[in-house]
Amino acid sequence: MQTTLLSATDTVTQASKTFSPSENFILRARLKNLSQYQALYHQSIENPEAFWAAEANELHWFKPWKHTLDDSKKPFFSWFTEGKTNLSYNCLDRHLNTQTRNKAAIIFEGEPGDERVLTYHDLHREVCRFANVLLGLGLEKGDTVAIYMPMVPELAIALLACARIGVIHSVIFGGFSSEAIRDRVLDARSKCVITMDGGYRRGKFLPLKEIVDAGVAPCPCVKHVLVLKRHRDTVGRDCPMTPGRDVWYHEATARVTTHRPAVEMDAEDMLFLLYTSGSTGKPKGIMHTTGGYMTHAYATTKYTFDMQAEDVFWCTADIGWVTGHSYVVYGPLLNGATVFMYEGAPDWPNHGRYWQLIEKYGVTIFYTAPTAIRAFMKWGDEWPAQSNLTSLRLLGSVGEPINPEAWLWYNKNIGFERCPIVDTWWQTETGGIMITPVPGCIPTKPGSATLPFFGIDAAVLDEEGNPSDHGLLAIRKPWPGMLRGIYGDTERYVRTYWSKWGGKYYFAGDGAIRDQDGYFWITGRVDDVVNVSGHRIGTAELEAVFIENHAVAESAVIGASHELKGQTLIAFVILKSISAGIDENWLRNDLNRMIETKIGKFARPEAIVFVPDLPKTRSGKIMRRLLRDIAEHRELGNVTTLADPAVVEAIRERFARLKTSTSA
Ligand code: WTA
To answer: Best substitution site from 279, 373, 398 to test ligand 1's pocket, by max atoms within 8 Å of Cβ?
Structure first.
């Protein structure tokens, strides 16, 4: 399978095959042909404000907005100025006087097989109750809470409850360690942490509360830890409770009603923070506000997934990442759709788990990541073949570039060549989907995210900002779901996203190619962010951990392509001279353990290579490109600018030796 990860450049230059949506799909689709897309796109880009205003008008506003866009303080944009709305109201209350009221909002299955269905009416009650508990803890509009939970309906309920009363949520993915929780809680000054006794993963009950306890111990800002029980009807796992700080959710609910009106939020009131990796050691708290994010999530869900009343939509992302925010919770519920949510892993108790769930619940739209698709491929065609997947009508992909071989496998073995595939490019920062096929309209090419969404002025530019067919991905006009900043670091916001082309365009951090049909092919990150199994990890975050080890003098971490994970982390580490003779395996374990405790298990590098030196230019800059060449077994690029050209051979030799010893 070594050849499967063709770069986008290879793929584009091969005459790539085009796939048109099937007749059956088009029959039901909201938009049905390319010229419809082109006409609407053309209009939307001539006047993006009119497009977004029309979408926003399909939602409820307590008070209409004055200006759809205020770009007078570029790059600090405001959308729907002075408008008042509430996201939770639009996800729930708006549907209560319609046929949607008694429809399933969330269908859930836990890993042990427990099942739950919450109608819109049920969900509304639960969200009101949850909001009342939060208010009872003294939380107020504008406060921030951290949420650290497994993939269960209460996680979605917690988000909606926060949005209902104007409390800003900062969800921390359940794979993060105590120290990562601490950093995020302190940075956001979260007053409360919402967590659960634990959740199920591959047959085990993983405790969460203890991880939170260790994380928040040094956080004076945390006044309460609200703890839910994974099994509501049982006594619950024993977990330590700190008197005065920790509150059992089931005890707090005994005292509250299921009535709680949604507060009127200003369109630009902060809705959530979500931490993501960048090119420094410190994760960025990406800020999203209410009206614009809501409108973007709503419109992209409607058109990209062609969401219809009878659909059962399954986005497999964890709510700990942005995909879960926009396409497990907000986008589908804004559309009155039915969401399927699953707690567990795809390979437990067997490799057919996802396909059995699709058959059981009649899932119609399935949205997952290329990493998962490559794993399905490896596990074998026989697993999906054992289930009846005929309910599916649309497939999606997100999080990393999809290699054509995985795309074709997905198309054949899951979609049976009937289901269009929407390969959606976007980011935590963009809030919602930006480049994607509109199914029913846009013929697809395996490996290409195709064309921009309505109202999105995407372009491929060179370093100077001129259009180019191979260069950097840029967004040239503001869009409503865009981040409003990095929490507590305005300067970093401007520098990271707006300095590349002198403040004119948004710089996404991705490379891209545009082919003769105008299709976009994302080639991957151009900064020091690595996309491992669709999870963003900053190489500088790992380097910052390594340097805390007394044996380490310096390190450089890079991303190398990997047949299953898309990319993987390889660390090149120079030891201090006092560490000479140290047992390398012992030290490797120690460094891995540090990554696990400071970030999380998912950030462990694939390999840690101890090297005598790093390839540096005469001015001391590490040439990571050469490290990537070594890790990907390529001919080395130009080494003449190196201070010591011999160093790359020594690194190559160490890398090869490690490979042989680990594969032996
Ligand atoms: C990458 C996830 C190629 C890209 C929604 C981006 C993709 C980063 C795609 C954002 C795609 C996401 N094709 N690359 N369809 N979707 N990416 O913030 O590098 O976790 O910058 O948001 O994932 O990752 P994030």
So the answer is: 398
The answer to whether the CB of 318 is under 6 A from ligand 1 is: no
48 and 95 part of one domain? no
- Residue (of 475, 459, 478) closest to 68 by Cα position: 478
Taking only the tens place, the pLDDT of each residue in 85-110 is 999 999 999 999 999 999 999 999 99
- Burial class of residue 204 in the structure, from the number of CB atoms within 10 Å of its CB (0-12 exposed, 13-18 middle, 19+ buried): exposed
Structure-token pair, residue 89: 């109201």
- The 10 Å Cβ neighbour count of residue 488 is 13
Of 615, 593, 498, 613, the residue nearest 546 (C-alpha): 593
Is residue 640 one of the residues assigned to a domain?
yes
- How far, in Å, is the centroid of ligand 1 from the Cα of 160? 25
The widest CA-to-CA distance across the chain, in whole angstroms, is: 73
Whether residue 467 is found in the same domain as residue 434: yes
Do 495 and 552 sit in the same domain of this protein? no
Specify the residue with its C-alpha closest to ligand 1, atom 6.
427
- pTM over 0.90, yes/no: yes
Domains of the chain: total: 3
Residue closest by Cα to atom 7 of ligand 1: 400
Distance 399 CA to ligand 1 centre (A): 4
User: Does 269 score more than 80 pLDDT?
Assistant: yes
User: Are 499 and 238 contacting, i.e. CB atoms less than 8 angstroms apart?
Assistant: no
Residue 426 CA to ligand 1 centre (angstroms):
5
Q: Which of 449, 481, 512 is the last residue of a domain?
A: 512
- Are residues 317 and 401 located together in one domain of the fold? yes
Residue percentage of the chain with pLDDT more than 90: 90
Q: What element of type H or E holds 147?
A: strand 144-148
Residue 133's CATH number: 3.40.50.12780
Is residue 578 located within the same domain as residue 641?
yes
Say yes or no: 358 and 494 in one domain. Answer: yes
Examine the pLDDT at 475 and tell me if it is beyond 70.
yes
Range of the domain at 28: 8-86+269-512
Tell me, using a 6 A CB cutoff, whether residue 525 lines ligand 1.
Answer: yes
Going by C-alpha positions, the residue among 88, 185, 84 that lies closest to residue 143 is 185
**Is the residue at 517 inside a domain?**
no
Separation of alpha carbons 543 and 555, rounded Å: 6
* Selection from 121, 320, 150 nearest residue 231 by Cα: 150
Same domain, 65 and 205: no
121 near 159, Cβ under 8 Å? Answer: no
